[in-house]
Amino acid sequence: MRLAVGADHAGFALKEALKEALRRQGHEVVDFGTDSPESTDYPDYAARVGEAVRRGEAERGILVCLTGTGMAMAANKIPGIRAALGVTPEWVRLSRAHNDANVLTLSARFTDAATAEQLARVFLETSFDGGRHERRLAKIAALEAGGPPGSDQPTNQG
Length: 158
What we know:
Elements: E1 2-7, H1 12-24, E2 28-31, H2 42-54, E3 60-65, H3 69-75, E4 83-85, H4 89-99, E5 103-107, H5 113-125, H6 132-144
Helix pairs in contact: 1-5, 2-3, 4-5
């Protein structure tokens, strides 16, 4: 799989370790920076990785910052990006299976390299379940387009 990765200064070391693990797993990794632990702004890297995924230059993306939250917030501003913070393997699995997350964000402060590798593996090996979840993704797409989520009434179907 072709992957886009990026990190700010706080996530630099974890991104570097994760890149090597992903390559060992046989993935093609495109690194959108940063290239050092010098202070940078996380939205710059979220934008680069998110745009690469949106344009189809990468199948999925992985972003790392201090908490993972800032990267998720920034990446989710890009239409078509569904970035999810990875905390546990089950959290990541559900983000893929139910939400079709296409960008994984990780916390450099709370995630060690071995756990990051495990979370990335779950993210890359889990497929989207489709079905009732497709309706929900259509509502997210409608919100991105500036409209209502597609129905005036919430649904209570699973």
